[in-house]
């Protein structure tokens, strides 16, 4: 039996049964909820490791649920929704969701997204004050010294490039929106800041990616933001 507990919040019985069957075949433990109020109760009572959340619930909007849970929990939240507009994805991610899966989805993709979240949980549990070093493939960040390395060679990063790299690394596997990144870097989210973000992201990629046309570490989500991939 998998040690991770998944809370499935979905009011559509067919989709809920598909997800639950998929989790059972992979040995995951799970709980289910069919409304927003039930979801909040289950989350508070059972403290699941990962939340799979539909946005279109009968009593509460999923984005409001994300905001409520984020006041007391950092558990990975994967949205599973029929809403496919960029604005919907951005709103959910800015509210605190870690990932966004659009219906209809494949079982393989759902399991892949779960594996990403589990790797993030494992990483966060392993990063202690005694070991404040992030390692991903040939990329290493030593938070204590404020230095980053690729293939054991120190990277010469500007302060903004280093902050961007740390933000992505500390949220590995999670899509960070343009709004979130610009607010963290500059304290604002104007269109000019988004343009500056793209410039700094391009220069950062040149320093850490072997081939910027096929990035290995930083994935672009067009119109939404960026994600560091766990290698």
How would you explain this protein's 3D organization?
This protein has 231 residues and is α/β, with parallel strands linked by helices. It has two domains: 5-124, Rossmann fold; 128-228, Orthogonal Bundle (Arc Repressor Mutant, subunit A), CATH 1.10.10.10. The protein contains eight helices and twelve strands. It has a five-stranded parallel beta sheet with strand order 2-1-3-4-5, sandwiched between helices. The protein is globular and about 50 Å long. One of its GO terms (biological process) is positive regulation of DNA-templated transcription. It comes from Wansuia hejianensis. It holds the Pfam family Trans_reg_C. The modification 4-aspartylphosphate is found at residue 54.
CATH homologous superfamily descriptor of the largest domain = Response regulator
Task: Sketch the major β-sheet.
Answer: 5 strands, parallel
Strand-residue proportion: 15-25%
Structural class: alpha/beta
How far is the N terminus from the C terminus? 25 Å
CATH topology grouping of the largest domain = Rossmann fold
Overall structural domain count: 2
List the SSEs and their pairings.
Elements: E1 5-9, H1 13-25, E2 29-33, H2 36-46, E3 50-53, H3 62-69, E4 77-81, H4 86-95, E5 99-102, H5 107-126, E6 133-136, E7 139-142, E8 147-150, E9 153-154, H6 159-170, E10 175-177, H7 178-186, H8 191-208, E11 218-221, E12 225-228
Parallel strand pairs: 1-2, 1-3, 3-4, 4-5
Antiparallel strand pairs: 6-7, 7-8, 8-9, 10-12, 11-12
Helix pairs in contact: 2-3, 6-8
GO biological process, one term: positive regulation of DNA-templated transcription
DNA-binding region: 131-230
Main location: cytoplasm
